[in-house]
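Quiz preparation item.
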């Protein structure tokens, strides 16, 4: 069985290129997206970035869905060990 570590937003953080220019650099600095959660979960981190740099809130049901459609799964695979393990296991079952 597999699950997203903390929140699925951790996977979104693996592809900074899909974010608005004003927050892209902050997200690009994250080298281990699945470990984001020391003080706040990934969605709270995104809410803070959106509020500070885009003057609006991050909405899981809108922004999260749109970003999930755009992210490069290869980047998630490279940066997120738990995601990689899940995909490798699923592929081995085929």
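Solution:
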């Amino acid at each position: 069985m597999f699950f997203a570590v903390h929140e699925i937003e951790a996977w979104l953080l693996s592809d900074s290129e899909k974010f608005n220019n004003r927050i892209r650099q902050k997200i690009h600095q994250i080298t281990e997206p699945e470990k984001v959660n020391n003080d706040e979960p990934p969605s709270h981190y995104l809410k803070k970035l959106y509020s500070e740099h885009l003057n609006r809130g991050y909405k899981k049901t809108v922004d999260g869905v749109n970003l999930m459609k755009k992210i490069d799964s290869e980047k998630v695979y490279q940066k997120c060990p738990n995601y990689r393990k899940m995909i490798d296991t699923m592929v081995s079952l085929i």
